[in-house]
Predict the structure.
Amino acid sequence: MLTPELEQLINYALEDGVLTDKERTVLMRKAQAAGADLDEFEMILDAKLHEVQKAAAAAAPKPNSNKHGEVRKCPACGAMVSAFSTRCSECGFEFNNVEANKSANTLFEKLQALEMEKAHELAQHEESKNKQLLALSERHNSGGTLTKIFANNGAAQNEERDDLIRTLEKGARQIERKYMDAKINMIKVFSVPNTKGDLLELLSMASSSAYDNDGVIGPEEEAWLQKTDQIYQKLVICAAGDTVTLNQATNMIVSLIKRLPKQYKNFTRIPKELRDKINVELKAQKAERNEEFKKSLLNILMGWRGITLGVALLLIIIDYCYLVKGYILIIALIVLIVVGKMTWSAIKEAKNDLLY
């Protein structure tokens, strides 16, 4: 199932009946980030493209588009901007007529090839698994019901089947690990280009792949962080004196740093003249999060949880001061413990929402 954002991006890309390599790369990257099945998504994309081209052929001929018509996409952040804009309102990227870069497309295609190989090998493994389980089941049933009753081997057969399933599942995990290692190695050894345009495009891909806001940095994300650092440091050298390009790259880095968990925020070195700007933005972000957390905390304490806790505490105090019947104290303590745990969980959840 396609997300509304992905549907909108497809519609924008196919609006003129042309799907460039760069647009296909961006769409595939967005689909991967959304958790869509890439083979299925590519089939849907090709089908939609065919429908658009078929409809265009039936209508009056239209002039060829150079992809700078009614809408265009920012190569830095992917935001939609009007055709007459010279700067992206989201990240400040300045548009030009430079031909699309190739490095990001090359890396993406290589990673896609690995994913397709993995999917094919897993499909073969699943087919082999089904055949082996079917053969085992036929062998177990070949002796007949009486044989199984008198041999009393039902438990042994179940154990044999469980052992086979565990072995086959281990094989599937090994395939997953093999291709994950290959993917990580490919990201690490991929050659970083020398031109500013290529570096910006590759930096956009790497920084967007380095973290998905789930609070966890896995092995693949660590590889993307290392690649992002490598690209940015080379761009700092190549773009020395080009403040526009350097600011575009730094904006991508700042956007990533803001989203990263605390222990990864210093994953790259930023020129001193730009570091102060980042620190100011990070402090402002932290202050904004603190304010949001205070509001969430106030809402929790002013809601039914806080009121219930207050009533329970009041009953405990009354019982302690005036020695009311003991069962009231017991009920109040139970309510205090249960609602207290619920309140604490709600507070931690509110805090995690602001962190990630």
Q: What stands out?
A: Residues 289-355 form one domain. The chain has four domains: 4-99, 100-191, 192-270, 289-355. DSSP finds twelve helices and two strands in the chain. Residues 103-141 form the longest helix (39 residues).
